[in-house]
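Human: Can I borrow your eye for a moment on a structure tokenisation matter? Separate attempts, laid side by side, tell us more than any discussion would. Could you pick a protein and write out its sequence and tokenised fold? No explanation is needed for now; the record alone will do.

Assistant:
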Amino acid sequence: MIVHLNGKVSLRSPAFMIIDCGGIGYGVQISLNTYEKICEVKELKLLTYLSIKEDSHTLYGFFDEEERQLFISLIAVNGIGTNTARMILSSLKPSEIKSAILNGNWTLLKTIKGIGPKTAQRLVIDLQDKLKKSESIDGLQPNTYASPAFEEALSALISLGFSKIEAEKGLLKVKQQNPDSSVEQLVKLTLKNL
């Protein structure tokens, strides 16, 4: 799986870009939200999501983790494909999309091209509880705990099969008790508690 690309931008348009990484050009589909943030950048690190279908392998690029996680949540909803999710992210900022879902504002969501009333309601129904849980976890996580070791340990726990919420809760407890722990120590201590 390709998680990010780090290289020079060799072609850029509002919906597509090519990043040259060590002599290989990767074509990446992007949202307008990402395009606005990187429109003048010559070199960058772009977070990605690889969509594999029978007839294609498509890379989607994101400026930040919030947008990538929202994209992954959107495509998990029945009836929302990768292109529709990209259209949603191009129409509204991630914070506006989250706010609309959390507040049950499906009328705002149905203003997006390709989203009808039923799909907008399904987005709210399917994602509201999921976003509430992740928002409450984000609210619990003070900036003092957001460190490279914490992020790396979180990633390791998620790859071991734990949910993000479960892993964050466990890591927060361990980090509070052992603030100077290494990545390995954080993972080991959290595994004991989970």
The chain has nine helices and five strands.
